[in-house]
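During the no-cost extension, the postdoctoral fellow (Dr. R.K.) reprocessed legacy sequence entries with the updated structure-token encoder. One reprocessed record is reproduced below for audit purposes.
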Amino acid sequence: MPQDTAARADAAVRRARNMKNGAGNVAENFQTAVDRSVSEQPLTTLVMAIAVGFILGAIWKA
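Re-encoded structure tokens follow.
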């Protein structure tokens, strides 16, 4: 029984590490995309940021 619990705990730790690594990859890809967007289309990126801010503000206030 304790071996089964230890195996499940190890599996949970491995899944958590994989999720952490995946989240790190997503964040890195997002940062790269934003950097590229800012350098290639600064005005479009600014308008999108304003739109997202407006939407989040409207949701927050509702």
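The CA atoms of residues 37 and 43 lie 9 Å apart. The chain has a mean pLDDT of 91. The remaining legacy entries will be reprocessed before the final report is submitted.
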